[in-house]
Each structure stands twice: as structure tokens, then as C-alpha cells.
Amino acid sequence: MISPGPRLRARALLLVSAVCFGLMAVLARRLSAGDGRFTAGQLAVVRFALGAAFSLAAFRLRPGLYAPRRRRLLWLRGLSGGIVVVLYFLALARIPAGEAGIIYNLFPVLATLFAVPAFGERPTVHLLLGLALATLGVFLVLGRGARGFSLGPGELLAAGAALFAALSAVSIRAMRSTDNSATIFFYFCLGGLPVAAPFALDPWPHAPSTWALAALMALAAWGGQLFMAEAYGPLAIGEASVWLQLTPIAQALLAVPLLSERLSGASVAGVALGAAGVAWATARGSRRVAR
After folding, report:
1. Where are the domains of the chain?
2. Residue 45: per-residue pLDDT
3. Which of 22, 93, 208, 272 has the fewest C-beta atoms lying within 10 Å of its C-beta?
4. pTM of this structure
């Protein structure tokens, strides 16, 4: 049984990861609008290339941080992560962001299901209830952009992104016993670059301010991935999945000051419901160990 200290630290890391991912999404939305904008493929390439550069700088500052063990699984995680990013950006180009976000953010639920045969994890009833509440909160937060679900190309692309994201989450959990989070993220960038490169052949923007925002977006993505991978060590997939549902909530809150978006009454209720689901799963979701 893991002591409360590492679990508490892992939960804090997932909270910071949610804020980082929310900031990344808001900046990506801003960079993809207006004249001189980045395309989805270009944003993916910037994210992977700068993420790899940040990782190399960290490896130089801390010798020994780069320590790959399960190289085959590292490369598979990198390729699957690249597929996730490309599929999700392609979905955003075809359907409203709210609908794409709802479908994509089902990946924590899928990851919880995949963890049952992969690791023998058995989520408690309280944990499943907390995950259901948090997922419902995401529906309320993002549902304002949905126009009704169908089985068009955009919906299938978002569902594919959710599937590969769930598989990536399980692979990260499997590697955390042998590989550190910095190494896992580095291979995520290396594997994602060749997947995203064919979608980045349009003319690139030149404005320095635009590139500065793109670098900030990549830095936020670097922090989000790194903190998430680090948190997968002490936490089971089920509990981590509940905390991951804070990401779209953080995105909606950050969009208010950074994109001048307004929260509807349903969105505010969704934020409260999502927070309640996380709190419930954290307080009641752990299994008791017999003395």
C-alpha cells in the first residue's frame, strides 16, 4: 500500500497538469484564429519539437535524467501520442470544439476500463461514482458547443483520439515502474513528430509575437505531460482518470480571461459538479486494506 504522502503529491501534480493542459488548449485556440495563424499540424509540430528541445535541455542540466529502459514501449507510446494529437486536431477542424471535447474527454473512462485486464485494478463504487460525476460536469461545461451527436468523420476522429489517449494512459502507467516521466515525455515528442509532420506543409507564420505564444503553448504542454506521467506512478488509473477530468474545466475557466469567453449557467454548474466528483472520489474512492 502506498503511503498518503506520494498519493497527495500525485494528486497535486494532476491538478497542476490540468491547468497546464487547459492553458495549452486556450493558447492553441488563440493561435489558430485570425490572420497569420498556425494550422493544426503546425501546432502539433511546434509542440513536439519544442517539447523535445525542453527535454534535451533538462537532460543536459541533470545528467542521468535520461534513462530509457523499455524502449519498445516508449516508442509505441510516442507514436500513439502523436496519433492522438493529430486525430484530435483533425476532429476540431470538422466539428464544434464542444462536441469534440466531449467525445475526446471520454478517454479517462476508457482508460479505467482498460486498466481492469491490464493491471487487475478494480475501481470502487465510490470511485466510479466520482468519475461519473466529473464526466457529467465535463458534459455541462463543454456541451454548449455540441449540436447533437452523429457518426460523421469528425465524431469518428474524436472517438479515435479518445481510444488512443486511453491506450497511451495505460502504457504510461505500465512504464512508470521502470522509466521516469522525463524520458517518457521525450519519446512522446520523438514519436509524435513524424506523425504530425505531413500535416504541417502549409506556409508558416512569421510574426515574433505569434511564435512567442507558440513557445508558451509548447511549454505548457511540456509541463502538463510531465506532471501527468509523474503522477501515474503512485495512483491507479481509476483515480487518475477522475483528476484528468479537471482539464476541460480548467480550459473553460482560463478561456474567460484569455479569450474573453463567457461561462453559461450550465458551464458553472458543470464546474461545480466536476469538482464535487473529484472530491468524492478522493475522499471515498480508496479501498480499505484489512489489518
Report:
1. 4-284
2. 93
3. 208
4. 0.79
